[in-house]
Amino acid sequence: MDQMIKGSQSLIFMNAPYLISAASVTGSKEAEGPLGKLFDMTNEDDLFGAQTWEEAESTMQKEACVLALGKAHVEAEEVRYLFGGDLLRQGIATSMGVEALQIPLFGLYGACSTSGEALALAAMSAAAGYGEYMLAVTSSHFGSAEKEFRFPLGYASQRPLSAHWTVTGSGAFLVRSAVPEARNSRENIDRSAHGGAGEGKEQARQEKSHVRIAGVTVGKIVDYGLKDSQNMGACMAPAAMDTIVQNFKDMGRTEQDYDRIITGDLGYVGQSILFDLVRGKGYDIREKHLDCGMTIFDQQTQDTHAGGSGCGCAAVTLASFVLPKIEKGEWKRVLFVPTGALMSTVSYNEGASVPGIAHGIVLEHC
Length: 366
Fold this sequence. Notes:
Largest sheet: 7 strands, mixed
Number of helices: 13
Distance between the termini: 23 Å
Strand content: 15-25%
CATH architecture of the largest domain: 3-Layer(aba) Sandwich
CATH superfamily of the largest domain: Stage V sporulation protein AD
CATH topology of the largest domain: Peroxisomal Thiolase, Chain A, domain 1
Radius of gyration: 20 Å
CATH class of the largest domain: Alpha Beta
């Protein structure tokens, strides 16, 4: 155990779990963006056949989970724990979306950093031997987020240039334990008990994933006292800096040890702030950095102002764009750092500042 603990906030897994499948489901605006052809499922109807935005978000979560499980030929009942979250009160998009799967659930809230939180906990649980398969899922929806945090769409309020556009999307990820002994033993027992039944499905699983979760750096709350909820990039950039720099210190690395350092949704405003803050700590990540909020939309043609945001932003970008590059070996090691602005309508109306948090996930080609 002591060998896995690195510094004050990080873990390096001795038996690193594999990220064996991922799925992305998005709405119409995302389908029109630069990554549109990479998503597993898109829908021109952002209600996804439902009656409300919230029901639509739940539908996206369920579809993403089913797709991720299907790609890996794994049944829902084989998954030990599900880690999921969204932006809505009481996490209703998640609880209603994954209910039909009947997987033991940990409901999470890390705002837009939730995909990182879910992946970290899934990887930690798999590495600790708590189960063979763990599922992580997050989502957001432009309609439900605007109603929750800003104004209903019918209000037609004007958006400042620093504002983000909440991504309508859901990303799901299946994590598998790296310990082969227990898995092989269980598979042999299953085949013996069923006279070879299910052998075809087990053979379909033989292909080894080329992506592993090598370590995590769990973020902490960082609050610079900013109160402008329409400028989330500025609110989240200090937390991103804190986690990135802490990852370097804990693991004895620099920016040169990563092919890409990918933040969740700082956008164009937050990125410039992040560069300045990191430079003040003695590092320069400009050549290594990529931001999901700047990647998922075309700022020139889609009028999304500062870029994309929401739990779904980092999740669907990771699933559709980042992981395939790691899988192919184009990127050997990536530091994935989803960022979250931890605000609520109550805290905002009471004049509180907007704290930020960011979680670091080290993804490696293997």
